[in-house]
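Appendix B, record 7
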Amino acid sequence: MGAPGELDLHLFGEGRHHRLWDLLGAHLVGAGATPGGTDGGVEFAVWAPNAAAVSVVGDWNWWSPGADHLEPQGSSGIWWGSVPAAGEGHRYKFAIRTRTGEVLERADPLA
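Structure tokens (predicted):
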């Protein structure tokens, strides 16, 4: 999958992206990904337009906010990142740091 491309971000911004499940959520990397394993990892993306920072917390990082940061994708409000240690079957949430410094853990709306 990789980071969202310009076309994806453009269509998302216009509200015309018809395959959001391909753009957002969690996606295994590589055909050899194994249950609970680290073959290729997982790519995560979430729309959090008012966040100051976003990370992924889960079984592999002991639910530690900030351990696996996501990066903002332009001004789209989408945060994306690849987490090599995550794998199929791992439980996870997004840790969203607000502009006031509060950290909120939220389930993936596309899970």
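Remarks on this record: The chain is about 10% helix and 30% strand. The first strand starts at residue 25 and ends at 28.
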